[in-house]
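About this split. The held-out portion is used to measure sequence recovery: a designer receives only the structure tokens and must propose an amino acid at every position. Recovery is the fraction of positions where the proposal matches the reference. Here is one held-out target exactly as it appears in the evaluation file.
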């Protein structure tokens, strides 16, 4: 797998699939065994399902603040955005 990522301001559509996967792994996400386009990312405060779609990255966050009342939020990021911007939004969470 590729370990050198393009500069952070490079749009995601200029990344190879291998570099996108390396980036997601470096964030702490794990690829789904059942669906290679689905990645799961769990943090202490929330979890996210990251879907690598044809024209965008769709993220569904689930807040873990209260197990009985989990909040879901969803957002799509076009591949034309920079990795730096998408990463900042992903790390911010729901």
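Reference sequence for scoring:
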């Amino acid at each position: 797998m590729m370990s050198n990522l393009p500069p952070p301001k490079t749009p995601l559509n200029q990344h190879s699939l291998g570099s996108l996967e390396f980036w997601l792994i470096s964030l702490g996400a794990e690829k789904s065994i059942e669906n290679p386009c689905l990645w799961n990312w769990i943090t202490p405060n929330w979890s996210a399902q990251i879907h690598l779609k044809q024209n965008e990255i769709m993220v569904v966050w689930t807040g873990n603040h209260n197990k009985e009342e989990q909040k879901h939020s969803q957002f799509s990021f076009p591949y034309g955005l920079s990795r730096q911007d998408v990463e900042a939004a992903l790390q911010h969470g729901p």
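Annotator remark: The longest strand covers residues 56-63.
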